[in-house]
Specification:
The structure is a homotetramer of 135-residue chains. Chain A is mainly alpha-helical and 135 residues long. In chain A, helix 1 packs across helix 3, helix 1 packs across helix 4 and helix 2 crosses helix 3. The longest helix of chain A has 26 residues. Chain A contains five helices and two strands. Chains A and B meet through helix 1, helix 4 and helix 5 of A and helix 1, helix 4 and helix 5 of B. Chain B binds a DNA duplex (15 and 15 nucleotides) through helix 3.
DNA sequence: GTGGTCTAGACCACC
DNA sequence: GTGGTCTAGACCACG
């Protein structure tokens, strides 16, 4: 499971962490019953304040993704994977929708937007089997 | 020229205003030498505080998009359109890139992402002729 | 009599006009009993709003430099030259003092400051008999 | 590090604060990696509103002098000292130039100006050894 | 009427 | 505790 946060994003760090844990559970990298990394460990790995991680965990608990195991850490709940797959879709879709809404409102032509999207799409996963751009 | 802001967005309102003016100038809706709406007028139209609009104008001045006409308002600079077309591209691209980066990090499959994007793309401008020919 | 205003100065334009009329009277370019340029003429010459000039004249009247001649314009008062020579000295000295106080507070070395001053002094009146800088 | 602002100056308070922080960094009183005084502390010390200080900090960030440390304060950037030495020179020079331009435009004789400058120069740092050798 | 500055104080995100 | 954003409203300089 890879975590990374971007300090310069307008999205709060704790929210980024929430998303990433959700993504991890949705993808099966974190399975029900398994412990997620501790607050301290994750804080150190991400170079953020432990309180920030703690806050993310609090939110994850609220969402029913993880549950505290007294004294041992936080564990992924049985319903976690199902919840997270739905939430993942929602998160990603909302962000994409917002970006495209803005693009449209910018009065860029649909073709320009399509071009930008394709550009970035191939940049983002350049490791895939070659050029995604249609001929 | 249509302006609208979303108070619940993580993007500060003053930044939304900055973007929208840039879009307006880039699109030619606001031309060099013409006055942009006044602080007070725009504040009233957007239902935000005049100070918030003033802050956006300050940033637009810093970016060389508009210049104050003492006592008369803010005027689009001669270089405005050129600057703004570049800045528009940057703004839109950055937002799309961030959304796609997140999508990739969510471990959704590239095909799922492509599908989401196409979905939203056609939603955003449903008036276009369908799904945009793709091989 | 040369007038010029700098729109980008933090000093209000009307105050710049006040200073320049005072300078003109102090230098003898405007003599007691002579009419100073009309609001409209000066406004046109300086490319500023007539109201701005009117405000400057109001201030000059308050300072006893000029007096209105019903229907014919503003004339320099008998005491004008004397008043203005004192005021000129005060204005210039105050501005120089403020600049130097700031320079000292900037922690630039006295030699650096002296160098800057000499630099600018020779720039400002390059038309004088050669280099003012001491060997 | 000493800060002080003059509320009656035509120079906005927030700009005075910007200059003073730049002077402090240029002089080495504020070093890279060190925290500058907090918004609230500085506001209290200068008897101005915290928002005014915040605005100055925003400008300093834009100039690459300081960078925010989320939740901990504002830190002087690595490039700060270099940037600031240049900016200090620019600030001081601009102010001196403006003062001298005005002096010249006042039609005071060059010798009178020189005398005024020397007067004030020795007043400003009277603790130095006299009138500064001039041929 | 315009924008610019300042004060005042709220709330938020983060540490 | 920190800075960031926003609202609110005052006053000023300028046209």
């Amino acid at each position: 499971m890879l975590f990374s946060v971007q300090a310069d994003s307008p999205i709060p760090i704790y929210e980024q962490i929430v998303s990433q844990v959700i993504f991890g559970v949705a993808a099966g990298a974190l399975e029900p019953g398994s412990l997620i990394p501790s607050v301290r460990e994750l804080a150190q790995r991400l170079l953020v304040h432990p309180n920030t991680v703690a806050r993310a965990f609090q939110e994850l608990e609220r969402r029913g993704v993880v549950a505290p195991l007294r004294g041992r850490g936080m564990e992924v709940t049985p319903d976690g994977p199902t919840n997270c797959r739905a939430q993942r879709q929602d998160i990603v879709r909302a962000r994409i929708r917002a970006a495209l809404r803005e693009a449209v409102s910018s009065a860029l032509s649909p073709d320009d937007i399509r071009k930008l999207v394709d550009d970035e799409l191939s940049r983002c996963n350049g490791q895939r089997r070659g050029k995604e751009k249609r001929s």
